[in-house]
Write a structure and sequence with these properties.
By secondary structure, this protein is mainly α. The protein is built from 12 helices and no strands. The chain has helices spanning about 1-5, 10-30, 35, 40-45, 50-60, 65-85, 85-115, 115-125, 130-155, 160-180, 205-225, 230-235. Helix 7 crosses helix 8 and helix 7 crosses helix 11. The longest helix has 29 residues, at about 85-115.
């Protein structure tokens, strides 16, 4: 206990390091699985029939989602003692990570949509939310907003302004998902990839995406409490 008290900053830093690693893993488990096509990659890469015979069980029950949730919970549990040991350091690290994470996520999410707006327009249409004559325009505008405000959150000091725009995007995503679920639509999220999947989809993906966006509202709203400053200046103050 004396060692921890004497080296509180070091211990807090180590806890935050492991919390960051776990949280990054959880993001890839939950958010980027559709864009990275992990299941397809595994099927294409490995030829061993024993491995293939066991893989469908994991996919069927979507264990990667549960792993992602468990990793997020563990990350939060590590942040709590770090906060108690060194509140100032923890707040600075969290601000950097959230800005990099949220900003990077929106940049990543925009790339496929910017490259193929036609496919993205098809995915927007499946929600049956926007008027038909606005779909093409929104398919062109939204990815640009995602890219530039995601980038601005990282490289500019205008944290509050960028956060309000990002919150607006989250709100629009949540409303669209609730609408799709209320209508019982089986949709492809289209969050990180515009690949059009043939055949009926499960509503499970819409529920997972809705829960993810609701969870991400918490750190995004927290950014509104931070001062407008660049990432470089955070550790100087």
């Amino acid at each position: 206990m004396k060692f921890i008290a004497r080296h509180s900053s070091l211990v807090a830093g180590l806890l935050l390091f492991f919390a960051t690693a776990l949280f990054v893993l959880s993001i890839f488990e939950i958010s980027f699985r559709d864009a990275l096509s992990v299941e397809k990659f595994l099927w294409d890469k490995y030829e061993d029939e024993l491995f293939k015979s066991s893989l469908p069980i994991a996919i069927k029950y979507q264990l990667h989602i549960f792993f992602g949730i468990a990793e997020t919970i563990l990350a939060v549990l590590l942040v709590i003692p770090a906060w108690k040991l060194n509140k100032a350091l923890t707040e600075k690290v969290l601000e950097v990570l959230i800005r990099l994470g949220i900003g990077g996520m929106f940049i990543f999410a925009s790339l496929d949509k910017i490259a193929d707006p036609k496919a993205f327009a098809v995915l927007i249409a499946q929600y049956q939310f926007l008027p038909y004559n606005l779909i093409n325009s929104w398919a062109l505008i939204l990815p640009q907003i995602e890219f530039w405000f995601g980038l601005a959150l990282i490289v500019t000091p205008f944290v509050k302004e960028c956060t309000w725009v990002i919150l607006g995007m989250f709100a629009s995503f949540i409303i669209a998902l609730v609408w799709a679920l209320a209508l019982g639509l089986s949709i492809v999220c289209g969050c990180f990839s515009v690949e059009v999947v043939e055949g009926a989809q499960s509503t499970k993906e819409a529920w997972i995406t809705l829960i993810r966006d609701l969870v991400l509202l918490v750190p995004t709203i927290w950014l509104l409490t931070r001062k407008n400053r660049s990432l470089i200046s955070i550790f100087r103050s």
